[in-house]
Each structure stands twice: as structure tokens, then as C-alpha cells.
Amino acid sequence: MRTTLFWIGLLLATVGCDADPAPPDPPSAPEGCDQPFYRGAFAVDPQTFVSSEDGWVEVVAGSSVGACGLREDGRIECWGGGLDHVPDPIEDRRYVQLTVTASGSLCALDEDGEARCWVSRTDPPLDPPPGPFLELAGHDDGVCGRRADGMVLCWGDTDALNPEALAEPYAALCGGPHGACGLSLDGTLRCLEETEVCETWANRFPGPWVAAARSYDTGMLLDAEGSVTFALDNTLPENARVVTPERVGGPTVAISVMMDLSCGLTDGGWLWCQERGWDYTPLPCETFTQVSAWYWGACAVRTDGHVVCWGVDPDPLDYLAPP
Fold it and tell me: What is the pTM for the complete model shown?
């Protein structure tokens, strides 16, 4: 009897070990995701362009008329006339992250943590100090890099930088027009530049936050629960609009803002955008891995590795079409 029970138990254990686990349920699409993702001041459907090739891992919108993308093999390619100062393609190193300044200069981080920049006609020289860096963040006319110990170094136009703010370590950087900023190790929002606009924003919305993004007078702040707070320069905390996980099909894990358009990416890959934090409109029912908002639209990397760019303008936007 004991022998029989032993073999039965061994058989059950073997079946349990070999059985494939049930695949997880796919994330459910947020309600209304089949609606146009962005209707701007012209109240028209966006012009949409999809890359002919897959294999993209990151895209950054560099100016009102251009963008750059990072391929799986570390090559950089740019399109649109606003980035004609960037050689195309860039194949001399393997790059892992891109960032842009407000006027369209491009900086990239290579796999060894060293930074390299291609400067637009309107920016001052951007000569990166030696790395290694963990991340880069572009702002008005300069770029900041964060090292492994959390300390931050900036280059380009550094006249407005706050030496006191740069004397402490940071957990993350944020940037954009009118605001080089960072998150302290406890998640507190700090301005790296001594500007009244940024300081007011940080004092009103100290945190803690896990990510922040800023462009001109629009700020996005992401908390640990996946909710996004919109903080315009004239917004008081009690009047700030919040996008909760329930509203967009899951917790938001990444944010991007440029001018009036703000976009977020949920943990299930769903993408949503708002115009100045007000007119919420989801994207089509597709999932994405990364997004970069630009002046009148956005570019994003779809889950299948294709880049998709959208734009709202009465004129043709063919220059938005990625390779």
C-alpha cells in the first residue's frame, strides 16, 4: 500500500512540475481606446505615419519638425528638417539613450555611459564631461547627466544653474523647456536652475514623486501609485487635475510633455494624451513601449518595434514619417 501511494504521489508531483503555467490574461483595452488620440485646435483627425521597418527601441521628438530614433543595434537615425545638423545614420558607437534640448540639439548616451552631443545652430557648444553617466536630460540650452552616485553634472548654458541644488545626489532627472529639474533620493522635486517659474512649481508640488516632466508652463508629476498630476505654472495644488489608473486602463509608468500636449504610458502599454491636462483622449487600441510628445503631436515605439508618429496641422506633415 505504501509503495502504491509513493508512486501515485511521485506521478502527481511530476505532472505538477512539467505542466506549463496558464498564460497571463492580456491587458484589457481602456474604454474608448478606438477614438482619435489627439484633436488639437484644428479639431481634425491626426495625420499618422508608421515606420517601414521594426527594431526601434526609443524615439525622441527633437523639434517642431523632426525626431530621432534609437535602433536595437544602437544606431541612431533622425528624420525631419529640424534635426539636419545630426549626421544620419550614426553608427560609430552603440547608444542606449537619447535626449534633446528645447531648440533641437541631440545628445546620446553610449553603452559605456559616455555622452556625445550634436549641436543645433541656436544652442551654445555642448561639450559633455567624461562619464560614466546613468541618464541624460535636456533642458533649455543645455543637458544634465546623472552618475551612479546620484551626483549631477550639466553642460551647455549653465548660467542659471543652482550650485546648492547640484551639491546633493538625485534619484532621477527631468528636463524640458524652462526647467532643468531632478528628484531627490526621497522623491522631492528640486529645480536645478534658479528660475522663479520652476521654483514656484517645485514648492507647490514637492512630492514625493517617481518621475517628473516639464515643458514651458506645463508640468507632469507621476506618483508611486501610477497617478499623474498636471501642474500648470498658475495651478494651485487644490486645483490640480489628476489622471488616475482607473481612467486610463492601469497605472501610468512613463510620462512625456511638450508645449500643450502631455502623454502617458500605462503598465499594460496603453498610451493616453491630454491637451494642457484637460481634453483627455485615448489612442487607438494598440500597445506601446515608449512615447515622446512634441509640439503638435507625438512619436511612440509600438510593441512590435515600429515607430508611429502623429501630428495635427492643416499642412501635410510628411516630414514626420520615420524610416
Answer: 0.83
